[in-house]
Design a protein that fits this description.
Layout (H helix, E strand, L loop, with lengths): L1 H8 L3 H20 L5 E4 L4 H21 L13 E5 L6 H13 L4 E4 L3 H11 L4 E3 L15 E3 L8 E3 L7 H10 L77 E8 L1 H4 L7 H11 L2 E9 L3 H12 L4 E5 L10 H9 L7 H7 L1
Parallel strand pairs: 1-2, 1-4, 2-3, 4-6, 7-8, 7-9
Antiparallel strand pairs: 5-6
Helix pairs in contact: 2-3, 3-6, 9-10
The structure holds flavin mononucleotide and adenosine-5'-triphosphate (ATP).
Flavin mononucleotide binds next to α5.
Length: about 350
């Protein structure tokens, strides 16, 4: 099975660990529920593409453990697949979704209703005990979920199976690139998380500085916490969400606002001129962002924390310039941590680079 072989051959031990535990969740689901009563919620996004291949691998391993003789037959997994299609989906997402289900022989049911009504209809027509979903920690709807989580109160009853709940943005890209599987072309154009055509633009952090109009591929985003930076905040109940069946076409104009905090005593003393803050404002303006506020603050954790605290609730992004080096006076990160009420620690990614 090519996915299993690719991950096993990889030198990325973190990927192998994540893969093993996700495939274990998939196998558990196949052991717990009748195959015909499980669905796979697929929308052509990167997370659901990862999930598709994990399900294929989990199905293969599940079958292999029961029937060694016919493993070749299990390269694909004919699992009931549901896609909530909306008029405001990107055409690239639609075509990737349809191509993929055809490539992997997935029986597809396209639902043209919002999630809740669509699931109510699905459960009325077909017994559905469990649904595989590509939710990950960090998604706004992941809060409080576990790998097996019953649907929320007020939703039709089924088990949400979230095999990649603990995967990071980087794990997703390590997997897709290691397994060399196809993913939607929008990710190569700087989109890092995809909602509707009305609320999603390429991630400004991937903007190519040598050519302001082009964007680097999604896998080059170094800080996965910013994967949703290209998605507008939902402003009102009529705005177009990713399942925005009730949206009015074209009604929403995306406008993002940022603030820039320049940290440095030397700038306040007037001994050094700030060039980076000004260049950043220019760049943001060129890509259509509004800069609502620029502040210069001293090298003090509390000053940075207060400024970040003020800006983070009003702007889509807050940029910090200065105070990020290795000296004791470089306190920007500590200020950000204080503003968010979290402890500073070394990310796995950086530990790996340093070891
Ligand atoms: C199959 C499926 C099941 C869902 N079940 C629930 C649920 O039980 N409770 C809930 O609040 N939202 C549920 N949702 C909605 C999701 O939480 C979320 O809004 C959706 O995946 C869009 O995520 P996005 O905003 O990251 O694009 C479900 C969505 C899908 C596709
Ligand atoms: N329109 C949809 N149809 C079917 N499943 C969906 C739909 N929207 C979301 N889902 C399910 O919810 C999961 C999480 O959605 P989310 O948008 O966070 O991830 P994604 O679309 O796979 O990737 P990305 O974050 O890059 O857009 C998906 O992986 C999929 O399982």
């Amino acid at each position: 099975m090519e996915i299993d072989a690719a991950v096993r051959a990889s030198s990325d031990s973190r990927l192998r660990t994540k893969y093993d535990s996700a495939v274990y969740v998939v196998q558990r689901a196949f052991a717990l529920y009748p195959f015909e009563e499980i669905s796979f919620s697929f929308n052509g996004g990167k997370d659901s593409t990862v999930l598709l291949h994990l399900i294929r691998a989990g199905y293969y391993l599940h079958k292999k453990s029961g029937d060694e003789a016919h493993t070749d037959t299990f390269q694909n997994c004919p699992l009931r697949t549901i896609y909530f299609e909306t008029p405001c989906a990107f055409p690239e997402i639609n075509s990737f979704t349809y191509e993929t289900v055809s490539t992997y022989g997935l029986p597809l049911e396209t639902i043209r209703l919002d999630f809740k009504s669509g699931l109510e209809g699905l459960l009325k027509n077909k017994t559905t005990k469990a649904i595989f979903i590509g939710t990950r920690i960090g998604d706004p709807n992941a809060v409080g979920q576990e790998q097996f989580s019953p649907s929320s109160p007020g939703w039709p009853p089924f088990m949400r199976v979230n095999p990649i709940l603990d995967w990071s943005y980087r794990d997703v890209w390590s997997f897709l690139l290691t397994c060399k599987v196809k993913y939607c072309s929008l990710y190569d154009e700087g989109y890092t998380s995809i909602g509707s055509i009305y609320d999603t633009v390429p991630n400004a952090l991937l903007c190519d500085s040598s050519n302001g109009k082009s964007f680097r591929p999604a896998y080059m985003l170094s800080d996965g916490r910013l994967e949703r930076a290209g998605r507008a905040k939902k402003t009102n109940s009529n705005s177009a969400g990713s399942n925005g069946i009730n949206s009015t076409e074209g009604e929403q104009i995306i406008s993002r606002s940022a603030s820039v905090i320049v940290v440095g005593d030397e700038i306040l003393f007037g001994t050094v001129e700030d060039k980076f803050g000004a260049a950043l404002c220019k760049k943001l303006h060129e890509i259509g962002w509004q800069v609502s506020h620029v502040a210069i603050v001293p090298n003090e954790t509390d000053s940075v924390a207060e400024e970040v605290e003020r800006c983070k609730s009003t702007d889509d992004a807050v940029f910090l310039v200065g105070g990020l080096g290795p000296l004791h006076s470089d306190i920007s990160l500590a200020g950000v941590a204080k503003a968010f009420g979290v402890r500073l620690c070394c990310a796995d990614y950086h530990k790996e680079i340093m070891s």
